[in-house]
Structure formats: C-alpha cells, structure tokens
Design goal:
Elements (H helix, E strand, L loop, with lengths): L3 H9 L6 E2 L6 E5 L2 E4 L1 E2 H8 L3 H9 L7 E2 L5 E3 L2 H14 L4 H13 L3 H43 L25 H4 L5
Helix pairs in contact: 2-3, 5-6
Amino acid sequence: MKSPQDIRQDLSEPSPDSSVVSDGVGETSGDASGSQKLLRIGQLAERCGKTVRALHLYEELGLLRPVLRSKGGFRLYSANAIERVQWISRLQEADVSLGEIQVLLRRLEEERIGAAAMMRLRDLLSAKLVEVREQQRKLSQLAQDLAAGLHYLDGCRVCEPEHLTSECTDCKIHGHDGNQPLMVAGVHTT
C-alpha cells in the first residue's frame, strides 16, 4: 500500500498517457470523453471563495491533490476539487480542524472495507450534528433574551427626564411591571 506522500507525489506528476495541450488554458486530452477542463489553483480558489494560500495549505496537509501539473508547473485540478474544498469548508464551519480532517482522511484511506470507512465519517457527522443542534438551542435562547431586552427598553424611550437611573431597577411605568428581563437586569449594580 502506498503512503499518502507517495500518492501525493504520483498525483503531482503527469502520467505518461496524460498530455497537456495548452499550458495557459488548462485543458487535457486523453480521457475517454475527449477533453476535460481542468482548473488552475487560482481558478479553483476563485470558484470556492478561498485564497490560493489556503489551497496550498490544504495540499500540504494532503486534503487536496492536483490531478497533474502542466508543462509550466501549474497545478491543475479537476472540477471535483470544488466539492472537496466546499466539504473542507463546511467541516471547518462545524469546528472540525484541518488536523482532524487530515486524520479522518488518512483513516478513511487506510480502511479496506467501505462500510467501515463510511461509519467513521458517519460518527464524525453525527457528533457534529449534536454540537450544532446544541449551538442552535443556545442561539435561540439568546435571541429570545435579546428580543425581551429590546422590547422592555422600547418602553424606556418615552420615559420622562425627571426619572433617575436609580428608579430603573424596579420601574412600574410605561408597561413595566418591576421585573426586568435578564439582558436589562444584569446592567444594574448593587
């Protein structure tokens, strides 16, 4: 079995049956369908909303691999690389580090049984879904607290200037009942 480093090396060198037609356009021929449009790293970065530097990092970590290099040394990627970059981005949004993605991919490559590999991925996605749902619950509560605070403070807009700040802690005017929501009550000191 080849090491990830050997695989990266194989992918970075054009195979003898792949010929680069144009160094500037990024088209290759030799596949069954005729020609396939390949993307340079800058084009891939633009399509994915990433920097070239980020994609270089992904490549260094073994998360992304060019299909081949052109005569001029340009990295050329298939359209599938867009999906890979989007997948990495989505995992990062779920607080999965690049190092964790690297380990996951290494373990998936080491698995000989497809179902076992997919179960590893499923376990990660399942754990992240639990975390995201907990974050949603917390954000929902925060949104309710902020809305309650704003609703309460809307009554303060019409308060007359003769009322002092010290009266705000147990205000019973302008629709207030003396009980302040958390986002307002926490401002007062004892």
